[in-house]
Amino acid sequence: MIYYKTHDEIEQIRKSNLLVSACIAELAKIIKPGITTMQLDQVAETFIRDHGAEPAFKGYKGFPYTCCLSVNAAVVHGFATDDELKEGDIISVDTGVVLNGFVGDSAYTFALGEIPNEVQQLLRVTKESLYLGIKKATVGNRIGDIAWAIQEHTEKKHGYGVVRELTGHGVGKKLHEEPEVPNYGKRGSGIKLQDGLVIAIEPMINLGKKDVFCADDGWTIVTSDGKPSAHFEHSIAVRKGKADILSSFKPIEEAERLNPNLFSANVPADAPVAAL
Ligand code: MG
Ligand code: MG
After folding, report:
1. Distance of alpha carbon 66 from alpha carbon 58, whole angstroms
2. Is the per-residue pLDDT at 273 higher than 60?
3. Yes or no: is domain 7-269 CATH 3.30.200.210?
4. What is the CA(188)–ligand 2 centre distance, in A?
5. Which single residue of 104, 138, 145, 230 has CA 20 to 30 Å from 244?
6. Which ligand is nearest to the CA of 95?
7. pTM > 0.70: yes or no
8. CA of 272 to the centre of ligand 1 (A)
9. Ligand (nearest to CA of 96)
10. Which ligand is nearest to the CA of 76?
11. Which ligand is nearest to the CA of 67?
12. Domain residue extents for the chain
């Protein structure tokens, strides 16, 4: 069953999501070659708790960490480890908080230093596809219109692999609510979008083929061909007929620009979607 949110609930979910954005921005300030994902996870947990919230992922179905930290061929759900990040890596930082009973969920992929042009393009196109999907989140459209827009831009136009096994989702009092929000599908299919729907849209896009497997840790999803994968996620509400983005990449992109260890060639958060 889909739980549609009131105005006040949406504003609570916005607060949760802005805390997630601030948390990812904190990590964007310190990501550099030599830092471990375990260190990043600890900074994130402290930041979230210091702001009166709880990590939404830690303990969720047994997931052991505050963030999903997915490096290179890891698509999503990567564990924090004592391995050091290095120049040329890409890392998806996905985290969630529970604040005042409401969940925020957002993700961003960073590149450490110089990365090949084809990986730069993967990051840019994946982020663009997120905004193209968001643009379709209007009253009268259906879930399939969001899915189609993402697939069209990534798979049809650029030949990337769109992960089938994982999807976006409703978000609210729970981290994962109905409906599922796939990154592939047919225009005009699925449920009709209406005011009060709050969903996380999260393209997971592979440079190579779409196939993935789950690593021995039981969580980390990895590309079967070993090629890199990108992941960007916003939580959005359908309000007054159109999409209202509840998370924000602005603080993250600001930190990314100011961190000399990070490569930034992505479209800015406030890029007019109409221009894409
Ligand atoms: Mg997420
Ligand atoms: Mg999510």
Report:
1. 5
2. no
3. no
4. 23
5. 230
6. 1
7. yes
8. 23
9. 1
10. 1
11. 1
12. 7-269
